[in-house]
Each structure stands twice: as structure tokens, then as C-alpha cells.
Write a structure and sequence with these properties.
It contains 17 helices and 30 strands. The protein is an alpha/beta fold and 579 residues long. The protein folds into three domains: 192 residues, 3-Layer(aba) Sandwich (Phosphoenolpyruvate Carboxykinase, domain 1); 233 residues, Phosphoenolpyruvate Carboxykinase, domain 3 (Alpha-Beta Complex); 74 residues, Phosphoenolpyruvate Carboxykinase, domain 2, CATH 2.170.8.10. Helix 2 runs antiparallel to helix 5, helix 11 packs antiparallel against helix 13 and helix 16 runs antiparallel to helix 17. The protein is globular and about 70 Å long. It starts with a helix and ends with a helix. The structure holds ligand TSX and manganese (II) ion.
Length: 579
């Protein structure tokens, strides 16, 4: 079991509350995983996929009412309501504990309780942090094994350090009326009941690595962010790392494993992470980043040979699929895969054309990052990778240029705080509505956004070697509704300009919102784009931006008294420059 008395006591306390039949301490071994898979194949929790085309791949069909994160049932339970902020649902910690403990009472009767020690980040990294998740879901164990460094090495680190985040999870009765995801940042603990789905149940990911970690990062002086990390290697063998935050449905995973177009012979994009980034100031004053995760929990629909060839290449072995359809010969299938056709939909019904999607729009794959053809060995580096540029982005049909560079750290923080994206059908059913999503952290910041922006601003006092901050938009449309920028691999051209700015080798024009590329500083060789379209993609529309700044001001104003002076100042400065 364990030599850590706090862990031992907590496991005993949970067992007496939830009344499991047996307790299993997870080691993370292959034999353990094989036994779990065998049990789940027996219970129907997993279905084997075509062993010829997809060896060691399994399909999980979740309860049809349990297919996504549930923001309205997700709470941040700080002692003071204002510390959670208007960006979170809040409940007093005592009330939250009472409410959720009642749902845990006897919840594991007749079931196995799994104790999962895990480490977020390379096991020997000083930036990494450990946790223990207790769950009654073997599917959670199998996913945590891919998504984190799980098992004996993590337990050894916990016993050495004595500190860990406590996560308690039970699928309960899967009833949405008895479903809660509660965070206690002041106690470094999480309680989740009533859902077996990814973000609600794999507590290392959004709950720990973002909500709890962001709170912890603030008090310890680092950053826990919803960002991909990639490395860009030039033909000269020089690699620059960038971290990028996008709201959902902007193709973050696609960007993280981009394949450069043909004209970029000798260039290479390396994947360090696709979702979460923990950053800390190094002794050299630079920001150093680790990916706390060890795998991808990616959205399947839209993933194809065209949009993300690297993803497709890593999904033909050792992967778990959740809520996808299957072909007649039992291969996983989803909308936008661009090959074959479905025979069964995500609920296991015969697929009928015109009767809804075969794969659930939020269907997922779980796979080790090491299976990605662009996997960077630096993902294991204990010190992390030095970040040259931070990129914010959003999906905007109009107004927002393809790329601009912010003139200072504080200006970059304002741009991050003002991020917005247009909704897609997959997310809300409502299309084209602009939603503010600061730093893409709206559902994930474990404390008041106003304090979070102040925390971001404070880094400028601690270093003069911080990354440059940029904003991108791949989604501009022309008057006929056609996308103006080819996107995907060709985003490499924008990344090259960004690195060029970091090295002071690329040209730019100053505008009131920041620096945009000069017409000839962006490489558009072999690209079918006319000068007029390019000019429009890089144009800054004063009147349009004045209106945008007004809306941004209104949004930021909703954070009231706590809104940092530095944010107000930068907002005022851009507004004045536009006037
Ligand atoms: O992921 C995307 N990226 C980033 C890629 C590295 N997507 C998909 C978003 C949904 C998850 C994009 N969609 C991107 C993009 O850069 N750009 C677009 C819009 C677009 C869609 C299709 C085409 C061009 C642009 N072209 C054709 O269909 C031929
Ligand atoms: Mn995410």
C-alpha cells in the first residue's frame, strides 16, 4: 500500500464512506492493464476494435446523457465567493462537501475502488506535481494510464515529497440530477460524482492540471495554462518553442502536430503537448514549460489525413476511442474521417443516413503522446522547454487580422484577456455568436479572472526576457463566405514570421493594435492567394476595432473593482490610439 500516512488515512476514510467490495492500488504495469481490459471486455465497458487494422484499440460507449463536461455542475469552492470570481460557479466548501459526500455514501458497494497515484509532468521534473485519484471506474484507470505518469513511480514520488492533490471520483448512478464536479483549491482536493466522461472523470486533466494547478500556480508564482506547446526547428537546426491558447473548435491539436508545406524543406514541427502547459521562470529569466500530460484526449470528428495526418498515423494501435461509430469491419469511424463509411453509430445502433451523426460530435481518442510521429523527446525534459512566443487566437470571420504582435507583455495580457471566438454548431447548436474566452481559460481558471490577469501582469516585474505575445486568426471569411487563409500546414508561414519577430529578423508595420507583417515579410511562395486577399487579412479596420474595444471594455468592466489597473491602462491606450 503506502508509507504515506495522510494517503493511507484518506483511502481508509473514503473506503468507509463509499463501501467498496475491494480496493486495488494501481501500479501502472502492463499486466495490470491487460487484466483491466479483460474485465472491461467482459462487462461491456470496452468493445474490441478490428485487431488487424487497429491492434490493441478499444471502443467505449458512454451513457448517452454523459458525453461532455458539465460547466453548470462544476464548482470552485473557495472560502470567499469573490475568490472564485464571476467566471466560476461557487459553493461554500462546507455545503459542497456535505452535498457531495451524501452522494458518495455507499456509492462503491459491490464494486472495486481503484487508487491511482499519478504524476502530472515528467516524473523527475521539479515543475511536475503529483496527485492520487480514487475511482470506481476501470475506464478511468485505463485512460489515466495513457494521460498521466501513473502507478508505482508516482507513488514513490508522493512518498518522498509528502504532497499530493486528492481526487475522489465515482460514476454514482450517472444521473445528471446527482452529478457534481467540485474543486477545493485551498485543500488541494477534487470531488466528482455522477459522470464517467473525460474532463469530469479523468481528474488529472482539467480538474487538477488546470483548475487546482492555476490556483496553486498563483500562490507559488508560476502559470498553469490551457495551451499547446510545439517546437519549430529550422534547416539550420535551431529550435524555438511556442505555447498557444485557443478556445474550442479552433484546431489546437491540429496545430500542435502540424506538418509544414513542401516549400519548407528541412523545417520540422515537434509536438510537446496539445492541451495544457505549466510555465515557470528559469534562472535565466526565460519562461520554461512542461506538458503535464502524457497523452492526447482529442476530439475525433474532423480528424483526417488532410487536416491532421500525424494524428491519423498514431490512431491505428494502442488507443481508446469513446463514442465514435464503427465500420462494417469494426474500425473506428467519425464524421470528417474522409474514408470508409459507418455501419453503427456511437450508441451501437445501425447507422441510418439522415438520422444524426454516426460519431458523437464530442467523441474522443485517448492515445500516448509517444505515438505521435512529431513527438518531441523534449516532452520528457525535467527542466521543460524555453518559450520564445506565446500565441493567443480565436475563430473570427471578420475584423481580427491573420496575425499581430503585441508591443509589450502587458499589452499581450490584455489581448489574452480579450480573446473571443465564434461558436460552432458542435459546441452550442448556436452558430456564429462571439463568446469571450480569456486565455481560453473560461471553464478552467480555478480563481477570479481579475486576480488571474494581475498574476499574468506581475511577470513583467520579475523578468525582462519574457516571450513575445502574438494573436492569430485562421478563420477570416470573404464576402462570399469563403475562408481567406488556407490554414492547416500553411499556418507554418505565420509561425515562421512569429519566430522571425522573436529573432528581430522579420519586418512588421506598427498599427494601433500591434505589429502586423509587411506584405513581403510573410512567406506566401507557392500559395494561391492574391495580393488583395493578403492585404485584407493583414488590414486593421479602425472603426471596427473601436467598436470591438468598446465591447471588450464592457466585458472587462464586469470584473468590477478587482480588474487590475494595468489592464484598464492598456485598454485605454489602444482606445486612444484608435481614436
Ligand atoms: O485546425 C484547423 N486549423 C489549424 C491547423 C493547423 N482548422 C479546423 C478547425 C476545426 C477544429 C481549420 N479550419 C483551420 C486551421 O488553420 N482553418 C480552417 C478553415 C478552413 C477550412 C477549409 C479550408 C481552408 C480553411 N480549405 C478547404 O477546405 C479546401
Ligand atoms: Mn482543452
Amino acid at each position: 500500500m503506502t508509507t504515506n500516512m495522510a494517503l493511507k488515512a484518506w483511502v481508509e476514510e473514503v473506503a468507509s464512506l463509499t463501501q467498496p467490495e475491494t480496493i486495488h492500488w494501481c501500479t501502472g504495469s502492463d499486466a495490470e492493464n491487460q487484466e483491466l481490459v479483460r474485465q472491461m471486455l467482459g462487462s461491456g465497458d470496452l468493445i474490441a476494435l478490428n485487431t488487424e487494422t487497429h491492434p490493441n484499440c478499444y471502443l467505449h460507449r458512454s451513457d448517452p446523457s454523459d458525453v461532455a463536461r458539465v460547466e453548470h455542475l462544476t464548482f470552485v469552492c473557495t472560502s470567499a465567493e469573490a475568490d472564485a470570481g464571476p467566471n466560476n460557479h461557487w459553493m461554500p466548501p462546507q455545503e459542497a462537501h456535505a452535498k457531495i459526500d451524501a452522494l458518495f455514501e455507499g456509492a462503491m458497494r459491490g464494486r472495486t475502488m481503484y487508487v491511482i497515484p499519478y504524476c502530472m509532468g515528467p516524473i523527475d521534473s521539479p515543475l511536475a506535481r503529483c496527485g492520487v485519484e480514487i475511482t470506481d471506474s476501470p475506464y478511468v484507470v485505463a485512460n489515466m494510464r495513457i494521460m498521466t505518469r501513473m502507478g508505482s513511480p508516482a507513488l514513490a514520488r508522493i512518498e518522498r515529497e509528502g504532497q499530493f492533490v486528492k481526487g475522489l471520483h465515482s460514476i454514482g448512478d450517472l444521473s445528471p440530477e446527482r452529478r457534481y464536479i467540485m474543486h477545493f483549491p485551498e485543500e488541494l482536493s477534487i470531488k466528482s460524482v455522477g459522470s464517467g466522461y473525460g474532463g469530469n472523470a479523468l481528474l488529472g486533466k482539467k480538474c487538477h492540471a488546470l483548475r487546482i494547478a492555476s490556483h496553486q500556480a498563483r500562490s507559488e508564482g508560476w502559470l498553469a495554462e490551457h495551451m499547446l506547446i510545439l517546437g519549430l526547428e529550422s534547416p539550420q537546426g535551431e529550435t524555438h518553442y511556442v505555447a498557444a491558447a485557443f478556445p474550442s473548435a479552433c484546431g489546437k491539436t491540429n496545430l500542435a502536430m502540424l506538418i509544414p508545406p513542401e516549400i519548407y524543406q528541412g523545417w520540422k514541427v515537434w509536438t510537446v503537448g496539445d492541451d495544457i502547459c505549466w510555465m515557470n521562470l528559469g534562472e535565466d529569466g526565460r519562461l520554461w514549460a512542461i506538458n503535464p500530460e502524457a497523452g492526447f484526449f482529442g476530439v475525433a470528428p474532423g480528424t483526417s489525413k488532410k487536416t491532421n495526418p500525424n494524428a491519423l498515423a498514431m490512431l491505428d494501435r494502442d488507443a481508446i476511442f469513446t463514442n465514435v461509430g464503427v465500420t462494417a469491419d469494426n474500425q473506428p469511424w467519425w464524421e470528417g474521417l474522409g474514408r470508409d463509411e459507418p455501419a453503427k453509430d456511437w450508441q451501437g445502433r445501425d447507422y441510418v443516413k439522415g438520422n444524426g451523426a454516426a460519431a458523437h460530435p464530442n467523441s474522443r481518442f485517448t492515445v500516448s503522446i509517444k505515438q505521435c510521429p512529431a513527438y518531441s523527446e523534449q516532452a520528457e525534459a525535467p527542466q521543460g522547454v524555453p518559450i520564445s512566443a506565446i500565441i493567443f487566437g480565436g475563430r473570427r470571420e471578420s475584423l481580427v487580422p491573420l496575425v499581430f504582435e503585441t508591443e509589450s507583455w502587458a499589452r499581450g495580457v490584455l489581448v489574452g484577456a480579450s480573446m473571443a471566438s465564434e461558436t460552432t454548431a458542435a459546441a452550442t447548436g448556436q452558430v456564429g455568436v462571439v463568446r469571450r474566452d480569456p486565455m481560453a481559460m473560461k471553464p478552467f481558471c480555478g480563481y477570479n479572472f481579475a486576480d488571474y490577469w494581475q498574476h499574468w501582469l506581475s511577470f513583467a516585474e520579475k523578468s525582462d526576457r519574457l516571450p513575445k505575445i502574438f494573436h492569430v486568426n485562421w478563420f477570416r471569411k470573404d464576402s462570399e463566405g469563403r475562408f481567406m487563409w488556407p490554414g492547416f500546414g500553411d499556418n507554418m508561414r505565420v509561425l515562421e514570421w512569429i519566430i522571425g519577430r522573436c529573432k528581430s529578423s522579420a519586418d512588421a508595420v506598427a498599427t494601433p493594435i500591434g505589429n502586423v507583417p509587411t506584405a513581403d515579410s510573410l512567406n506566401v511562395d507557392n500559395l494561391d492567394i492574391d495580393a488583395g486577399t493578403l492585404a485584407e487579412l493583414l488590414r486593421v479596420d479602425r472603426a471596427g476595432w473601436q467598436a470591438e474595444l468598446e465591447q471588450i471594455g464592457e466585458y472587462l468592466g464586469s470584473y468590477g473593482e478587482r480588474l487590475p489597473e494595468g489592464i484598464k491602462q492598456e485598454h485605454r491606450r489602444i482606445s486612444d490610439a484608435l481614436a
